[in-house]
Amino acid sequence: MVSERFEMLNEKEQSLVGVIETVHPRKKQPVIIFLNGFLDTMDSQAKKQLAAAFLQAGYVTVRFDYTYGFGEGSGDKSFFTLSNQVQDISKVMDYVTRRGYVAPDKIVLIGHCFGSMAAIFFAAFDDRVKAIIAMSTPFWFSDTKVTRMDDHELSRIKLKRYFHLYCNTLGKEVRIDYTFFEDGLKKDMGRAVRNLQQPILLVHGENDESIPVKNSEEIASRVPGEKQLEIVPGLGHTLEWKDLKKLLPLFLDFLKRLK
């Protein structure tokens, strides 16, 4: 297996960091690009194990930490926004399509939570994406555990210009700037979904309390092209390897049917 670490700088000399892996470096293969959710990292055990399974199935895999994400990215983590996520996806896409073992017409984005939301925003305006696997995807930015606030709470955060959240990955509270809300609340998810031409597999846990199932149902009802919605009984929001392992046949079946 070939494993290549990469690093890219933005205009402020801040970096995103990632790894691209393949079992067959001498032939062109389809690619799976993993997009982290909020407070997630490329090195979570569940993500690494899912990537290993895709590798064995014949895919190149790409995992990376956003410039302003909660892994190895060097930007100020408090300025994590959907717009910054989308900009980073574009940089990674440019890098990936230049690799000799990548089939540039077979690139799939797989995301969770805000990662899958960013996947839709990106793919809706970039036809290099072949398909999307979207897990626990918000349609309404304000309808998530992190952003579900009344007007009083939101006004208080707007006045302070920041708020704090506990991050399990770091084992401590992290500061999030109000720009996270300013950016997210302006995003037009409806427009992005309407523009989406690629096939999309939407997977949502029936017991997801962080992002209600109605979000994925709304996306599915608006997607103009090919879509598949799977509501999984007993599944919550946080996905461990035991959960992803059960979903893997669903993922591979969806990918196998792509033209």
Quick tags:
globular, 10 strands, eight-stranded mixed beta sheet, single chain, 27% strand, 8 helices, 259 residues, Rossmann fold, alpha/beta, two-stranded antiparallel sheet
Describe this structure in words.
It is a single chain. With 259 residues, the protein is of the alpha/beta class. The two termini are 27 Å apart. α1 packs parallel to α8 (241-256) and α2 (82-96) crosses α3 (114-123). It contains 8 helices and 10 strands. β5 (102-112), α3 (114-123) and β6 (129-135) form a beta-alpha-beta unit. The mean pLDDT is 95. The chain has one domain (2-148, 189-256): Alpha/Beta hydrolase fold, catalytic domain (Rossmann fold).
TL;DR of this structure?
With 259 residues, the protein is of the alpha/beta class. It is built from 8 helices and 10 strands. It is globular.
In the residues, how many domains can be counted?
Answer: 1
Radius of gyration: 17 Å
Instruction: Give the low-pLDDT segments.
Output: none
The level of helicity is: 25-40%
Query: What CATH architecture do you see?
Result: 3-Layer(aba) Sandwich
CATH topology: Rossmann fold
CATH superfamily: Alpha/Beta hydrolase fold, catalytic domain
Q: What is the terminal-to-terminal distance?
A: 27 Å
Shape: globular
How are the strands of the largest sheet arranged? 1-2-4-3-5-6-9-10
DSSP helix count?
A: 8
Mean pLDDT: 95
